[in-house]
Amino acid sequence: MHVITFLEVGRVLEVIKQGLGDFVIIGDTVVDLALNRKGTDSDVDVFPLEISSFAEEDKIREFAYSQGWDYGKTPIDTPRVIATVGDKELQIDFYDNIQDFYVPRAILESAVLERIGENKFKVVRLEDYILLKLNAFREEDEDELKGIVELIGTGKLKIDKQYLLSHVDYFEENADSIRDRLKSIGLIT
Q1: In angstroms, rounded to a whole number, what is the distance separating the alpha carbons of residues 61 and 57?
Q2: What is the distance in angstroms between the CA of the first residue and the CA of the last residue of the chain?
Q3: What CA–CA distance (Å, rounded) separates 182 from 137?
Q4: Angle at CA 21, nearest 5°, toward 18 and 25?
Q5: Residues in the chain, pLDDT under 70
Q6: Do the domain assignments include residue 189?
Q7: How far is CA 148 from CA 35, 92, 159, in A?
Q8: Could you tell me if 72 and 80 are in contact, meaning their C-beta atoms sit under 8 angstroms apart?
């Protein structure tokens, strides 16, 4: 995959925000931004605040087509928009609280504004991103979390452990599992 600059990413996200309303970035882009990277070679995962990815799928599909973009589905069957950026494609995956996928409202409300290109967008804090990964805890999440722990250990990333621990309970019945996973990956003792 090719790196798409954050200037280009920001332009696509601004078009989406104007057309479909505000959203919070919840995926790997959080780590790219925390590491001050110039762009991403990943997709951008968003959680819409003004529409439902699940219930208003038609609206998202029609919007994508109106921009000349492609449309597809994420692994959990929510909308995926594939925006053309020069000779590259930027995939924007729309998520919603369905099946085992869960983003607590308090985490969305704790999002911070981050500059991506020429605009600012709501982005979950790195601590909350870690909690979302610990909640999902698929094999790829575990590998990614080990990489983040290593970056924290070398000082390339910083987290607020008090903040991290204060948000665990937002995951309700999964809170104890998340605490155990935090210990197993070495983020808390």
Answers
A1: 6
A2: 37
A3: 11
A4: 105
A5: 1
A6: no
A7: 10, 23, 10
A8: yes
The whole domain housing 116 covers 4-124
Residue 161: CB atoms within 10 A of its CB come to 12
Dig out the tokens for 65 from the structure. Answer: 């087509």
Supply the pLDDT for residue 1. Answer: 56
142 and 55 together in one domain:
no
170 and 81, same structural domain? no
Please identify, among 82, 97, 124, the residue that sits at the C-terminal boundary of a domain: 124
Best CA proximity match to 86, nearest among 2, 150, 29, 187: 2
Nearest to 69 by CA among 109, 11, 119: 11
Q: Which residue has the tokens 């704790």?
A: 110
pLDDT score, position 115: 97
Q: Name, in order, each residue with C-beta under 8 angstroms of 53's C-beta and a sequence gap of 6 or more.
A: 47, 60, 78, 79, 94, 95, 96
Write the secondary structure of the chain as one string of H (helix), E (strand) and C (coil): CCCEEHHHHHHHHHHHHHHHCCEEECCCHHHHHHCCCCEECCCEEEEECCCCCCCCHHHHHHHHHHCCCEEEECCCCCEEEEEEECCEEEEEEECCCCCCCCCCHHHHHCCEEEEECCEEEEECCHHHHHHHHHHHCCHHHHHHHHHHHHHHHCCCCCCCHHHHHHHHHHHHHHHHHHHHHHHHCCCCC
- Find the Cα–Cα–Cα–Cα dihedral 133, 107, 114, 127, rounded to 10°: -50
Amino acid identity of residue 47, one-letter, is: F
